Amino acid sequence: MAQDTTPTKILLLDRGECSFVTKVRNAQRAGASLVVVIDSKVENVTNVIMGDDGTGSGIRIPSMLIGKSDGQILKDFAKLKQGATLSAEFTVKVSEDAADVEFWYSSNNPRALDFLKEFDQYAHKLDGYVKFTPRFVTWACPSCEKNFIEEECFSDGKYCAPNHVRTEFMNIEGKNILMEDLR
Fold first, then answer.
1. Residue 170: CB partners within 8 Å, gap ≥ 6?
2. CA 28, CA 56: separation in Å to the nearest integer?
3. What's the pLDDT tens digit per position in 73-92?
4. Cα–Cα–Cα angle for 7, 12, 15, nearest 5°?
5. Which residue, among 49, 50, 64, 45, has the nearest Cα to 21 in the 3D structure?
6. Domain range summary for the chain, segments of one domain joined by +
7. Which of 39, 137, 147, 162 is the most exposed place for a label (fewest CB within 10 A)?
8. How many Å apart are CA 32 and CA 130, to the nearest integer?
9. What is the mean pLDDT of the chain?
10. How would residue 72 be classed by pLDDT, with cut points 50, 70 and 90?
11. Cα separation, 69 vs 74, whole angstroms
């Protein structure tokens, strides 16, 4: 059997200008197999969640966020136009007998709530195989405008509702979303 020698398209993208979901969707449409998003500032990227804006259900390629300095190393190497191998491993934590699965969501995400409702009828079948832990997503915005922090956040901008935009059709304060998450 012939081995596929087609190179995998790994796309390096800078963070900013649009959401993570939009970046990855556009990369997928362009034929990428993996997206590496390079942070735009020096920070601990393990504290950054590449959140779904609610439109990511059709995305089928993996993506990751790396730090700015590591990203610069990859960019500099890519400019040399030499062949290279980049290994990316996406793993699920496995405890002794069961897989640990964390589900990050917010009560303002109808798809997440639908998933939980439907998952409930199957959860008992996975008992012993999967340790399912729901978690609530929040983000910090200490540098946001005072008015925004007062209406949308707790603890002076330390906890804010994720992906929350108030419109004339959805006029719920972020504080109320967080309270619902905690209820």
1. 108
2. 12
3. 999 988 888 877 777 777 76
4. 160
5. 50
6. 10-79, 99-182
7. 147
8. 31
9. 83
10. very high
11. 9
As a whole number of angstroms, the distance between CA 14 and CA 9 comes to 16
User: Judging by beta carbons within 10 Å of its beta carbon (0-12, 13-18, 19+), is residue 63 exposed, middle or buried?
Assistant: buried
pLDDT band at 8 (very low <50, low <70, confident <90, very high): confident
Measuring CA to CA, which residue among 170, 177, 78, 93 is closest to residue 136? Answer: 177
For the chain, give the percent of residues with pLDDT over 90: 21
Rg of the chain on CA atoms, in Å: 20
pLDDT at 146: 87
Contact 35, 23 (CB under 8 A): yes
Cβ-contact 93, 30 below 8 angstroms: no
d(CA 161, CA 71): 29
Cβ 42 vs Cβ 69: under 8 Å: yes
What is 116-153 written as a DSSP string?
HHHHHTTGGGGTTTEEEEEEE--B--TTS-HHHHHHHE
| Per-residue model confidence as pLDDT tens digits over 110-141 | 888 889 899 988 888 888 888 888 888 887 88
Q: Per the structure block, which two tokens stand in for 42?
A: 């020096």
- CATH T-level fold of 10-79: Glucose Oxidase; domain 1 (3.50.30)
Q: Tell me whether residue 152 is exposed, middle or buried, using C-beta atoms within 10 angstroms of its C-beta: 0 to 12, 13 to 18, 19 or more.
A: buried
